[in-house]
Amino acid sequence: MSPQAPGARLTVGAVVRALEPDFPDVTISKVRFLEAEGLVTPARTASGYRQFTPEDVERLRYVLRAQRDLFWPLKVIKDNLEAINRGLTPGDAVDGRPQSPPPTPDPDVPDAADLAARPELRLTAPELARATGLGPDEVSDLASHGLLRPDTAGLHDEADLRVAHAAAGLATYGVQPRHLRAFRAAADREVGLVEQVVGARRGADAQRHAAEVAHLCLSLHAALVRGGLSGRTG
């Protein structure tokens, strides 16, 4: 079948011609029967003519293949089409059952390699303030609440830079460092869980496992937050 342009509308005769190379026995009556059974719902013109989209053609292709190769009754096919409508993807030729696609990688969650990398950036408190637009007192306030953790030389790494940037953005919404202490407590608990899972491992093996576990913890955290927001705004 030659690909149809996005948004193209096909007559029932054109649909049959598109399907015939793979399904020689398909007829206009067959397509109309599948429509009557609710397996495809083409649009109609003002005068009542059917208008099928390329998506309708692929839906019919799925139905005909399921009947021919898998011997599924229409009820089973309809249930599987409903699952596909909910975001599942058609299965392989052996099983044919729709499958849940893997989750889309969250671009906001660093991967294990990034987490395992040793940060090289070191900033003084004034440099951190200039980089984030915070005032010296605000940087000091973040440190006093445990959100920034300078090293023994008083220098801040890239993690502190990210924290300060986020805190500066939240400050525009009236969120103060004292409101953010729960994030530090939650992060410390997650770090404690990572250390517990890694256990007695040492060296590069421990760093790799810690980074992998931390990535999964961050993915879980992000998924819970996204789920909570979609439940409130959906």
Map the helices and strands.
Blueprint: H1 12-19, H2 28-36, E1 43-44, E2 50-51, H3 54-69, H4 74-85, H5 112-116, H6 125-132, H7 136-144, H8 158-171, H9 181-198, H10 203-233
Antiparallel strand pairs: 1-2
Beta-strand content estimate: under 5%
Shape: elongated
The first-level CATH class of the largest domain is given as: Mainly Alpha
Termini, distance in Å?
Answer: 39 Å
**What is the ordering of alpha helices and beta strands?**
HHEEHHHHHHHH
- By oligomeric state, this entry counts as single chain
Count of DSSP H/I helices: 10
Structural classification: mainly alpha
What is the C-alpha radius of gyration, as a whole number of Å? Answer: 28 Å
Helix content: 55-70%
pLDDT below 50 for ≥5 consecutive residues: which ranges? Answer: none
Number of strands: 2
Strand order of the largest sheet: 1-2
The largest β sheet comes out as:
2 strands, antiparallel
CATH topology-level name of the largest domain? Multidrug-efflux Transporter Regulator, Chain: A, Domain 2
Domain module tally: 2
Global mean pLDDT? 89
CATH architecture classification of the largest domain: Orthogonal Bundle
Care to give the gist of this entry?
The chain is mainly α.
Summarize the structure in words.
The protein has ten helices and two strands; from the N terminus they run ααββαααααααα. It folds into two domains: 12-85, Multidrug-efflux Transporter Regulator, Chain: A, Domain 2 (Orthogonal Bundle); 112-233, Multidrug-efflux Transporter Regulator, Chain: A, Domain 2 (Orthogonal Bundle), CATH 1.10.1660. A hairpin with a 5-residue loop joins β1 and β2 (50-51). It is 56% helix and 2% strand. The model has no long low-confidence stretch (mean pLDDT 89). The two termini are 39 Å apart. The chain is mainly alpha-helical and 234 residues long.
